């Protein structure tokens, strides 16, 4: 009796007239029980839906993890910015002299670290400038090729060359 019920549900499913509960019955039948040999072709369809649902939930979990990591990076950047701002307010020599030796040492080391970061960023910008020059050269080359093609078409029309 259940096999006839499953077959009628499959007919309704193929016509797009099943309810969510009926589709859940079909998924349950094709994923957990032994399937009749003539209905074996439907097994891969319904097991795909179950596997896809599991993959979707895993992707959702991984995106929330990456979002939380992104917030950690933003928080770290904010802390560095606040520390940098605090140290940069010490501009006059009188204020610098009021600091203890340890504080002066930390201030100088921080300045060295920022200088190192700045130098590395400038070094990284040089290859980007080179890529920009190459990109511009390719664009000019494409414009020249288009111009030559138009010139070639005009020449062929003038001399009736096909």
Provide a quick synopsis of the model.
The protein is an all-alpha fold and about 160 residues long. The chain has helices at about 1-15, 20-30, 40-90, 95-100, 100-160. The mean pLDDT is about 75.
Describe the structure.
The structure is a single chain. The chain is flat, with a radius of gyration of 35 Å. It is 87% helix and 0% strand. The chain starts with a helix and ends with a helix. By secondary structure, it is an all-alpha fold. It is built from five helices and no strands.
Total number of helical segments? 5
What Rg, in angstroms, do the CA atoms define?
35 Å
Structural class: mainly alpha
Mean pLDDT across residues: 75
| Residues in helices, as a percent range | over 70%
From N to C, what is the helix and strand string? HHHHH
Characterize the largest beta sheet: strand count, sense, and whether it forms a barrel. none
How many structural domains does the protein architecture include? 2
N-C termini distance = 75 Å
The fraction of residues in strands falls at under 5%
Question: What are the segments in which pLDDT stays under 50 over at least 5 consecutive residues?
Answer: none
Q: What is the tally of beta strands?
A: 0
Q: Which word captures the global form?
A: flat
């Amino acid at each position: 009796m259940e096999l006839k019920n499953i077959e009628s549900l499959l007919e309704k499913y193929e016509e797009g007239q099943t309810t969510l509960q009926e589709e859940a019955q079909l998924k349950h039948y094709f994923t957990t029980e032994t399937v009749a040999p003539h209905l074996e072709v439907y097994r891969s369809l319904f097991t795909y839906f179950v596997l896809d649902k599991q993959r979707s939930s895993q992707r959702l979990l991984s995106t929330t993890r990456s979002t939380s990591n992104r917030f950690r990076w933003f928080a770290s950047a904010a802390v560095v910015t606040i520390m940098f701002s605090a140290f940069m307010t010490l501009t006059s020599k009188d204020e610098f002299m009021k600091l203890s030796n340890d504080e002066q040492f930390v201030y100088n080391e921080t300045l060295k670290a920022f200088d190192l970061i700045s130098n590395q960023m400038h070094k990284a910008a040089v290859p980007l400038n080179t890529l920009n020059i190459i990109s511009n050269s390719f664009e000019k080359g494409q414009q020249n090729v288009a111009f030559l093609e138009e010139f070639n078409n005009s020449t062929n029309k003038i001399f009736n060359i096909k």
